[in-house]
Amino acid sequence: MSLTRRRALQALSVLPAAGLIGGLSRPARAAEFSLKYGNNLPLTHPLNIRAQEAADRVAKESNGRVEIAIFPNNQLGGDTDMLAQVRNGALNFFTPSALVVATLVPIAAINAVGFAFADYDQVWKAMDGGLGAHIRAAMAKVGLHTFEKMWDNGFRQITSGAKPIESAKDMDGLKIRVPVSPLGISMFKALSSSPTSLQFSEVYSSLQTRIVDAQENPLPIIQVAKLYEVQKYCAISNHIWDGFWFIANARAFNALPADLRTIVSNAINDAGLKQREDIKTFNATVQADLQRNGMKFTTPSPDSFRAKLRDSGFYGEWKGRFGDEAWALLEGAVGKLA
Ligand code: X2X
User: Fold this and answer.
1) Which residue CA neighbors atom 6 of ligand 1 most closely?
2) Where are the domains of the chain?
3) Thinking of the domain 156-240+291-334, which architecture would CATH place it in?
4) Are 5-153+242-288 and 156-240+291-334 equal in CATH topology?
5) Span 248-257, mean pLDDT?
6) How far is the CA of 97 from the centre of ligand 1 (A)?
7) Helix or strand holding residue 214 (H, E)
């Protein structure tokens, strides 16, 4: 075969993949592997923007062999449903918060221990280091493959409708929604609040109908999910640092040829690192945007919260539940806790 003819054929064979760049058209052939990824966040959140980039990159680098379809915003059900789907293989990928995946793998909630992390240096040192590896190993035991780079949710802040939170005593009796998460319930009970677990898909409506008076989430989520429409006050409490693990059904993921697994892993991990940067940038302006949207901010001192958690035995209880090995990994990154 002449070189020219071979080049021409090669050029033809990459055409379908080229058509995928930028998502302008469908590949001429159906992808060999059509994978589904579901999450609980609006399309405008950096998690979805970077996930779409990763999907585009995977399509391109695999020459159209792998297609990842994204189902944002709880389209496939709430967190509990998606967690079940990724376990039974109906869903290939899901990004549960550490709090949520802990309903299945309890150790995964350890990063959410109240006031553990002082800043992002500590966060990524722990989650990219020994603590993150320990958690991913536990997820593997229940059939979940976890990509190495955790995605950022952020430091969680408390919003309320009826009155502002100025110190821990304003938490007394507060009807607050927390994610479906034993640690969240335990922590807000320790603060004398009255917490209720609800999936994120139910948060906006339960605030609107006043089933609950308050909720807690990082500022970027409060902004993109428009929670300012149904909440008046926001306390910068930084009480929990939370991230999203990018997980896959391990059986389905390991059934991909090795070269495709590498392409998918690199695309997802790289996108995760960029998403962390997006949240950092977002954090620089989001409070001002929320203020323009009518939210009133308070900055309660963390001391009264920490003291209440300590005195109620919260830290002792969770050290026992997570175990000495994991607790030592956490304290290795953040220093001695209570
Ligand atoms: O449900 C929430 O609050 C959210 C979006 O932060 C999580 O996924 C835990």
Assistant:
1) 217
2) 5-153+242-288, 156-240+291-334
3) 3-Layer(aba) Sandwich (3.40)
4) yes
5) 98
6) 6
7) strand 214-217
237-248 burial, b at 16+ Cβ within 10 Å, e below that, comes to bbbbbbbbbbbb
Dump pLDDT digits (tens) for 219-239. Answer: 999 999 999 999 999 999 999
What is the pTM (predicted TM-score) of this model?
0.91
Q: With a 6 A CB cut-off, is 217 part of the ligand 1 pocket?
A: yes
Burial zone of 86 (CB within 10 Å; 0-12 exposed, 13-18 middle, 19+ buried): buried
Is the shortest distance between the CB of 193 and ligand 1 below 6 Å? Answer: no
User: C-alpha distances in angstroms, 139 versus 65, 105, 108, 134?
Assistant: 28, 6, 8, 9
Among protein residues, the one whose CA lies closest to atom 5 of ligand 1: 200
Cα 199 to ligand 1 centroid, rounded to whole Å:
8
The CA distance from 197 to 114, in Å, is 17
Q: Which CATH architecture has domain 5-153+242-288?
A: 3-Layer(aba) Sandwich (3.40)
Question: Residue 294 C-alpha to ligand 1 middle, in angstroms?
Answer: 22
Cα(238) to ligand 1 centroid in Å equals 15
The answer to whether the CB of 221 falls within 8 A of the CB of 227 is yes
Separation of 156 CA from ligand 1 center, angstroms?
A: 9
How much is the average pLDDT of 60-68? 98
pLDDT in tens, 14-33: 333 333 444 445 555 789 99
**pLDDT tens-place string over residues 192-214:** 999 999 999 999 999 999 999 99
Whether 153 lines ligand 1, by a CB cut-off of 6 Å, is: yes
In ligand 1, the atom with minimum distance to the C-alpha of 218 is 6
Report pLDDT digits (tens) over 84-114.
Answer: 999 999 999 999 999 999 999 999 999 999 9
For residue 153, the ligand 1 atom closest to its alpha carbon is 6
**Ligand 1 within 6 A of CB of 92:** no
Stretch 72-88: mean pLDDT, rounded? 97
Q: Which residue has the tokens 């680098």?
A: 61
* pLDDT given at position 26: 53
